Amino acid sequence: MSPADEASAALDALIARCADKVRLVGQAHRLDPADVDEVFQEVRIRVWKAVGESERIEGLPASYVYRTAESVALDFIRRRRARRAGTTDPIETIGGLEAHELQGPDRLAASELGDLIERSLGDLAENRRGVVRMYLAGYGTGEIGAALGWTEAKARNLVYRGLADLRAALASHGVGAEGIR
Amino acid sequence: MSDEELRKAYQARRPGASDGGAPSPEELQRLVTREGAEAERLRTLDRVFASKNAEREFELLRAIDQAERSAEARSRWRRVGSLALAASVLLAVAGVLTLRNRAGEPTRAPSVEGAPLQLLPAPDARVTGGVPFLWRSVPGARGYRLEVLTDAGSVVTSIQTSDTTASYTPSGASGTQATYRWVVVALLPEGGEVASPPRRLILVTP
Asked: In chain A, which residue's Cα lies nearest the Cα of B26?
């Protein structure tokens, strides 16, 4: 194997390890594996340009790859937003709940209730709203605490206080314990 | 309504008309890396999860950040592991030295700073016939004086040497046993002397 091939193989292995780790961390939520692939393809190009020698790649810390990935991801987000400007994504691609999970009247009822939840969230204090949204999006209190630098206990406390506020706001919009009245 | 029902309904909500309120990529990054005031980050968080596209972008940045943190943590643990290994090796060496000490290889630092470190014979060693003495050199010493004393403090022999070893053979009736103490005195260049602490020794006349 030529030195260039060795360097390429070493880089592929390093990038694959890092990309797998990112996929693993994000798999429980809305991380799109295609986004990870696109970001890490660009990471590979940037790292190769910066350190295209086998010895240097072998000694490269994973943190270098992750830092590069952060930078690439920001550029990726900017590019995608620019592309998206003026276009509309179909509901199926941006809705959180896949069509096969809820269908027909169930889906309509859920989305109607979802709209009411959205409206009721507007009644919550600004500093509580984000935490409640994150919880409703499927994140656990441990993850919410980690995202904000809080203990899990603090995150849990604030989530449940926020949910109590949300239920009260929903009640004022005619949504009780059994759903829409 | 249970938390799970709330979650399902929230996730099925119709998307907003636009993503105009979505945080900028820089705001997303500050949220992920926990930079800036908490109040600002909470406002950003609200805007992230109000926009499904921003939520996806947040998740991409968050997953990269989490993966990096976990790699750093692993590497820290590796470093701590190496330190722990080094510490255990040191402890093991100390243990071996202590055992060797008990077995007859004195390693304890001299109680007098700059004094010769006595190596052999071990404390309270019982020796028949000629006794080899061994000590560690003192930097700059021009020579050493080995003194063997009786229990009462009388000097039995005094041997001056530039080496770090000397020997002594007791005289007297065969089979006689007596307790002695021995010290090594380092002779310093300016005429000063530094003596090791006395060490007990039992000598048996051959």
From this structure: A74
pLDDT tens digits, one per residue of A67-95: 889 989 999 999 988 887 766 555 444 44
Domain C-terminal end among A85, A120, A143: A85
Domain boundary among A85, A114, A144: A85
d(CA A2, nearest CA chain B) in Å: 30
The model's pTM: 0.60
Q: Is ipTM beyond 0.85?
A: no
Residue A179 near residue A113 (C-beta atoms within 8 A): yes
Q: What is the DSSP letter of B182?
A: E
- The pLDDT tens digits of the residues spanning B71-102 come to 877 666 666 666 666 665 555 555 444 434 44
Overall number of domains in chain A? 2
Is there a single domain that holds both residue A37 and residue A110? no
Instruction: Kindly list the residues from chain B whose CB atom is less than 8 angstroms away from the CB atom of residue A61.
Output: 75
Distance from CA of A86 to the nearest CA of B (A): 10
Contact A114 B14 (CB under 8 A): yes
- Helical residues (DSSP H) of chain B, grouped into ranges: 3-11, 25-32, 38-50, 52-103
